[in-house]
Amino acid sequence: MSICRNSIYQRYSTSDWDMSNRNNFMEAEKERSAAERLRADLFRTVKVTDQVTRTRQQNNTRKLGT
Question: Distance between CA atoms of 38 and 14, rounded to whole angstroms?
Answer without folding.
Answer: 36
